[in-house]
Structures
1.
Amino acid sequence: MRRQPPPVSPRARSWVELAAVPLGSLSGVGPARAKAMSALGISSLADLLSYYPRRYLDRTRLASLSELKLGEEAWLVVRVRRVRSRRARTGRSVVEVDCSDGRGYLKVTFFNQPWRAQQLKEGQQVAVFGRLDRYQGRAQMVNPVVDLVGDRTGRIVPLYPASEKAQVSTWQVAELVEKALEAVGELADPLAAAERRDVGLVGRSEALRMVHSPQSMEEKEQGRRRLAFDELLWLQLALLAAKRRSLREEAGICHDTRLGEGSLVAELFGRLGFRPTKAQLRAIEEIALDMASPHPMHRLLQGDVGSGKTLVAAAAMLFAVQGGHQACLLAPTEVLAEQHFQGLSRLLSGMEVPSEATLEGTRPLRIALLVGRLRSTERRLVTERLASGELDLVVGTHALLSEGVEFASLGAVVVDEQHRFGVEQRAHLRQRVRRDGLVPDTLVMTATPIPRTVAMTYYGDLELSVLDELPLGRRPVETTWLRGIRSWQRAWEAVRREVAEGHRCYVICPLVEESGALEASSATAEFERLSEGELAGLRLGLVHGQMASSRREETMAAFRSGEVDVLVATTVVEVGVDVPEATVIVIEDADRFGIAQLHQLRGRVGRSSLPSWCFLLSKEEITPEAEARLRAVEATTDGFRLAEEDLRLRGEGTVLGTRQQGRSDLKAASLVRDVDLVGEARQLATQILEADPRLSSRRLLAEEVSYFVGAGAEFLLKG
């Protein structure tokens, strides 16, 4: 039975309506206060009500000084008795604050935070969070988190992000939120009671009250859950509506996707010398179904490092070729493009494709490389052969996107490491409509495992294929974090041992500064140091992004062939470089890299049945965040587990970023903890659009999606 949209109370106001009401309409908000609040991104009533607390003070669970043990961390609500500031002998500023919670005394000490002397005043009530220790016989906290809570009472106190610079405190924000809730009254709810009941959600007005003025932490979570669901629903509706629109408006090519005897893909399998994994076969069958349909394929192929995405991509391109069309593979770097070209050339060498231009009815399959380093005559020859249809496959970098590159009959586009391309660049090939008006099929690939919630949120318009098993015989890479210079010798001994066994090794130098020259000098300096030091006597090669591409490829070829034992490189080798004989990778200053990048770099080894090692080198003193990243990478080689951990450590960031001036960022939802809500939002969005594809009877919902997501969804879909 089709559900009716919720009735709208004539007194209830919508989110979009509140977005048009300036903050200055609230009593007590003059020009100066309005300007200060705008520094926090709050200009309207909607901005204010969606400025959610960053944390809460549960006064029913507050510790007291008399109960707190040394070494324990806790929130304390204390009153400031005295504030002193001085300079230590080292020159550091020291602010000392004497406090009391009514049962005991606490000394709070701030180092290098001189502004605390102006922030904290005698008689003020503040909340401090930190570890209790003892100094000269007195209870003390050093550099605790501080929130100015004023004299607010209540069991649960919301603490809002404040701004010292704009002179806006958390209790001032709370005061304005309270006024806004009272002034707004009832908020219009775009969800019907039955829809809310199915997901276990409270009403929107109730949710706002629960988040801003909860009676318990359980109630706070109930309110947050509803507001989070709204954000996720807006995104899913935008993505799914755009996906439906593309299915309705775009026409694709019905490819010949035979897999049986006589097909190019069957011939490809016969050349492998091994059987594809079940995951690869499943992905190829999913792609075959997509490409045989009259709608253009938009599919994301997600697979951990070494899971065999290239074979799946080759099959997709051959589906296009065996029907008489062309295919292209877009790679982010020349190193990766050249490797793809060489690998595909070997794999497809001697393969015949149908041709009416020959007596035999077939001709050799033709493949070419198009990268920036080609001379103008070589480039012109490739583009002419593409335009005439003489070429079946082309592998290239951004050069494929340039003016003058035309295809006779482009049937399939594969984008490797798609996150490395700008959205507009990816869209350029995806939207390259043929002369007959048909849209080529698109397969985007990533070796960076994506948590399920992120895939459903960022790539909600794409069908998803996952390669979740490694080819037979592959071994996990043994990973060791070496902390402190004295322990690094173990890594260099492993390099020497493996080279003596006839294997090859990588040494990775980080990009220390955002400067090409510094990147090159960093790698060059380490290359020279190692050549004369720990790796003296071994054959070392150097690769970095500022080298001439011909020289870089020459060094890479020497490394593949074994003429170079150790490749000293920057992250130019992060993705796609495939040298099965490489068994050790040493990553210097590993604390400077993120989890995903470390995992990608580790994937340069362990690409055969040989045992392999990864050494993460760091100095003794590193940040707690870096320590957490290195421990995570050392603990597992499972890219999907690491992706979840990376999301937890880094946070989600933004979904649509500054494309919508931050308006669409997830404020209440969390892709880490709201796994169930993402699925629920997608399910409800599907049901709503099936009943009402244009949201004609869901005016409130349509307005919210348009306002909060707007063109941002189209921006995502271009990718």
2.
Amino acid sequence: MFFFLLIAFLFFSVNPIKATGEFKTIQKVNYQIDIQGNAIVSQEVQLINNLSEIYPTTYQLILSGPQLENITGTDSQGNIIQKIDRQEDLNNIQIKFNDSHLGKDQITKFNLNYTIPKLAIKKGNIWEIPIPENKSVTDSDISEITILVPSNFGNISFSSSNPQNVIPLNNQTQIFFNNTNQKIFLIFGNYQLFDFNFKYFLANDSNQTKTLEIAIPPETDSQKIVYKEISPPPFNIKTDQDGNWLAQYKLSANQELEINVSGQAKIIPNIIKTKIDTKNYLKEQKFWPINEPTIKQIANSLKNIKDVYNYTVNTLTYDYNAVNASERKGAINTLLIPESSICTDFTDLFVTLARAKGIPAREVQGFAYTNNSKIKPINTNADVLHAWPQYYDQSKEAWISVDPTWEKTTNGIDYFKDLDPNHFAFVFHGLNSEQPFPPGGYKNKHKIKTVEVEFATQELRPSYENLKVISLNNKIYQPTVIKISNQNNNSLSNLKISIENLKWKQEFNSLPPISSIEINPPNYPFFKSLNPVNRNFNITIESLNTTANQFSIPNPKYYLNLIIFIGSIITFSGLSGIILTSSKKHKK
């Protein structure tokens, strides 16, 4: 009996297709990746007969992707390579065994070796490695994968499947997977860098001066921003409740304004505790109809947030023809035509079902790099934006990003347990499903490309000047208000403000660029305020970005209290003199 075994390799995946139950396969695959990203692959295969009357005679390996090099195959009696063809992007390797074994539990062993050029690709500051997928057709099959990468690739920042072992060796790292049925996609590197250039067009069509706002990328727990230019500069940048940074501009009547913003984003996979008012993220919004009967019925059938994610991935189909569509459907209309979905539809359905189950959720709009050219807009002037959801994990007290769209379009890479560092957030929609608009949403009549994002080759280092600290009032009868202004193009993180003599301290998570905060320090106790060293507020300001700076602001209450104290002494002295004089007159 002849047996023909086909291994189809699609996007570097290995899929054995064999007669069900006839053979058990044990595969050990080793990937040695060099510093240029080339992979030398050695594959040991054992075919174990499950039946007594069969044995394998031929084998065909089809590999799609780059043309392979150094292809060899041997069994115990020598070369088994019969023919090698390449047509378009397919490498077809036909094998004929010299040494096959008949009988139940008999083993046919052979080795394959080949090179996959540029299996690992450097993108920006990270290395991406799509590992060939080994699919076992029965539960009894065994597949072991060992990957050796240069240690200068960095740490694993994303893995679509959990490795059994990660072992640092001399100048390289060994990663071992055992019997995984998931695709293995690895990203190495501690962070990703993106350079960005945005254009915004504002227009005040009214007959009076107005304040208009644009959203610029904010700093979060997982991304740091260095701004090279914000031109013209806004008069202020404020932070809304969702953490968005809104640059404010005053436009006179009928004024039009073009704003250019450039900088660099550093994406660092990280989770930091964040306190939120959860009820604000459980409300119904325009695109999130959580009270619709259909939504309630689906939500009631789901147990947890992973079920919500799985339902979204399994129900919707990505429509590559709708990439250039701009109309947002919302959750209900998405369910009506699930086969015509894009990233906003996946996100809206996830957020809606999560909120309907009482799990706080919101939308992120930004940029995410993809290898899939079908997802990129055909129009070169169109802005490449992506949407993905976040849910709030109350046990971790943190927002967790997931991407059901990417899982669907990659045919199974798990983007629930971890998100790759190629996601760059522009805005967050939690309290409002539509506002603020992200970069790319502030167009003019020419409809030109306004968002450019590309991998950075060199990390920018922000520069910081001294803060500006002033007192907003010097009137002795008013409360003291001190304004602290960050006049830099870069934010200050973990800002700490203290006044030592008062033993007073106040902290802020961040102070965005070109923004200010106002503080109201307490007054010195009356008698302590009379000490000349307390005639000023001696303020110390420090952050993660800067060393401690000291500022001295006049304390108007010092002079008021001093006048009161001197006046009290004079009054008391006068009263004492009158009493003493009266006493003397009485004695006479």
3.
Amino acid sequence: MYDLLIADALLYDGTGAPPVEGSIAIQGDRIAAVGPEARGPARRVLKAAGYAAAPGFVDIHSHSDYHLLLAPEAASSLLQGVTLEVGGNCGYAAAPIAGPWQREREETYGEVYGLSLGFSTVAEYFARLTRERIGINFALLMGHNTLRGSILGGANRAPTPEEAERMAALARRGMAEGAVGLSTGLVYAPACFAKPEELTALATVVREAGGILTAHIRSEGDGLLEALEEILGVAEAAAIPLQVSHLKTSGEKNWGKLPEAFALIERALARGLTVRCDRYPYTAANTGLSACLPSWALEGGRDAQVARLGDPSVRERLTAELATQGKTDTYWDRVMIAEVVTEGNKRFEGLRVSRAAAAAGKPPPPFVLDLLVAEKMQVDAIYFTMSEENLRQILAKPYVMIGSDAGTRNFTGPLSGGHPHPRGFGTFPRVLGHCVRDLGLFDLATAIRKMTWDPCRMVGLHDRGRLIPGAVADLTLFDPDRVRDEATYEDPYRPPSGIAWVLVNGQVAVEAGALTEVRAGRPVRPVRREA
């Protein structure tokens, strides 16, 4: 007697193979049988004729580390078919964390959300996620920025040998406790102050424990090619598999660099380096508003940054430097304020900086600096800087996986406000609908491979991501003719259409396109690594 039989679906196994009609039998949290011959008595039968059945979608680039503590239901993730997220990206991870960064995070989440974190190690963080009864599975990358900030704070200098060893020790322990690798955000403080040798040393520690390196590279615009050469050099020196985060060409003058970017990656592949990339199916980026500032303005912790931006001489220098960088009227028309913390500035959410500044009666540069000071640097922004044609070429590459670059959201509670990027609700159905059905960038089997088995094998989760007996029963069933994203920049809190059922560890978390009360997720650790 099976616990559940999903009957007569069109089965996509996750490997990119053509689909076959058949059924999936589930016992406990595992797939017991799959295929045309998967039959037998079951406590419940889902009649799935006309639906595509795939492994649950894997968000290889997530930022839900802290979001899961505020919205453990993971509504926006589950409703688009995501059953597993890999968090800790762009250099920032919930754990391991220590020292000044741990204190700052405790203060920030205490002040803004009244949330006590109470963890330092990966094991403690995973225990916290377990207690919260999260709705999705979650794997963790350690953050280079977080490690550096934990030991050096926001200092703009190289670590001493003793500090370097302390960072390495945190990384070793994190890997032993279940992290899948290390991420870096070389465009962000404090990793922007790190030399390649520092990152290579940490990456070597992680590789020795079987992990990978992911990288938000030092530049995705003017210095794109140099930044790619840098990170490929680090990966080769450390002999570690590399994942380039959200591969893009930012800024119209840089769109023509894409062929050479591909060539750099593909030459590295030809040399035998394992290189993968991830990307979301949108042409706008989403990060902090502070990302528009030069790195020297972001030295030190949050208090030091706020004090610096309030200094009249610094403001004068920043205003001049922003203009020199081309951040003038047209630039501010392409930046939207997505989310702030204080009630008094909520009126600016959803507005382009140019319009918000006009409403405040200020030119854009002083408005931006004033807003960052008032919000203690906690301003989220959306940057409309990319090419649709380049996006299509990137997504079509066989080494590019799908990642949202978002944190999970909910329709109520602390993570239901602002104007977040629509990718948080729409990434995966947008690939299935817009990219596959509308644009024909690749077939449905290839799209599913990019969202299931490719990310699972990248991070060593070899019991997930495929429809095979013995695999974990994370599943997504959808209507291939109806599935599509509904979220927009103007109205981001709109769930997708066409996602019918989602199972997490064998339990039905979404039924008839709506959330059940099931929260069956858990922290996950690598099973084994294949060459």
4.
Amino acid sequence: MTRTYKNPVQRGFFPDPSVVRVGDDYYMVNSTFQYFPAIAISHSKDMVHWELIGHAITDPDELDLSDIRDSHGIWAPDISYSNGRFIIMATLRLNADGKRDNNVMRRQVVVLSDRPEGPYSKPSWLEVDSIDPSHFVDDDGKHYMVISPGINLVPISDDCTRVTGDLIPVWPGTGERCPEGPHILRHGDYYYAILAEGGTGYGHGINVGRSKNLFGPYEASPYNPLMRQLDPNAPIQRTGHGKLIEDANGDWWVYYLMGRPNRGIEVANGKAPKPGEIRVPGAYTTVGRETGLDPVRWLDDGWFVINEGKGPSNEQTAPDLPEVVYPKWQRDDFDSDTLDVHWQFVRRPAPGNYSLTERPGHMRIWTQDGQLFEIRAKNTLLRREEELSYTAVTKLSFDPTRDGEQAGLTCYYSTATYARFSLCFEGKRKLQLVINRNHGEELIAEVNQVKDGPIWLKVEVDRLTRRFLYSYDGEDWSEAGVLKDCIYLCDEGVPDDPKRHTGTLVGIYANNGGCGSRIPADFDFFEFQGRDINI
């Protein structure tokens, strides 16, 4: 029986995919930017259903993201398998002011393990100031790091931890803007140079060139762009940054990043966007860039096409592999003494200021300095929004008595843009719904008569509308406030923000609002129920 699947196959904030097959198992890595632990690692048996199994860097002392700006940090990882080891490479994008690391803006990190989920080795650093590394081993056994802009080769040691030669430019791309996400693939008589071009927004695409010599010259494919969304009203946009993979049956596929806009794209005169074209308002990628999958077919002339040149699939025939479906992670009762792999801290966590054991069955977060609009904020704990519509709820025990103390739910994009729904103290015990839509907090709604004891907090998301509710028993709910047209909680929502690459996450937080206190906020559980909707 033929099965089908819908894109994306990795839903929520899973951008810049790289996949490797080892036997009958498939492993994916994705960018995590300023979030920690770093570099998400997922596993699949059927190429469509994925389970998150770990992270490549889990010790914050080995990767200090405490001062990393929004949408900087870990970019575009690549996973490969060689000589019995998994090799993960990625870019550490530092702050543009160059105040650390000798004014270098970008460094490449490499970690190794004999187990896909880790633990991985301590990071090794390859001092190449560019982005988007990937690993290639030639027929003669020599190892290279492939890196942008365009396709460049950097000779590296056999263990992939040292640069051993100078950078060698081999193909600049087709001439479109932002030639990045580079991969080299050896197939038949040719080396194929695969690039993302056109920028990561609307008009993103995949182009390819080939050569019989690794070092070129390369000719561009007559079928370029191999992947680009040309329908401005389609439910899948921003498609690019792809990596090809051969499945266990010998069939070929490409994993690529994509975005699901909350609204249809309105383009001048109804024409499709050109690479780098500024779109008019109307498309908001709230959940962030995700991972899609489409088939690849090799042609008689030695080139290949993706999805027969039709662009990204909404629905597609699944790989001919035994289906293995993993349960969705929907609820955490905080009963374990270790944090579930789905949780992400914003930047560096602060050990000693959160605990799963001080009050068993609860996630305890101690208030401390640093509010959500500050980079220094610690222990904001989030999970990915997997759908454009969902409900999230938590139960909180918190006893604020000083002005500024706050704990609760947050729908968080960055220090510049978020919504927070918190139990707080401002002259008295209150609930506040506060938004930050562009580097400034605004009080939207307030509940002044809040009972002592535990309180349930809920957010109901329907596309761009977010409704916040509270309860004293988890059964009877009262509305605190509604946010409509939350276009600031997405990549496109604040045009003057220099880098917005992550999408919105939802979770829990606590801080002291600047009053200097340290009191516990105890979260009994966190539950997420997504709803797959037609766009």
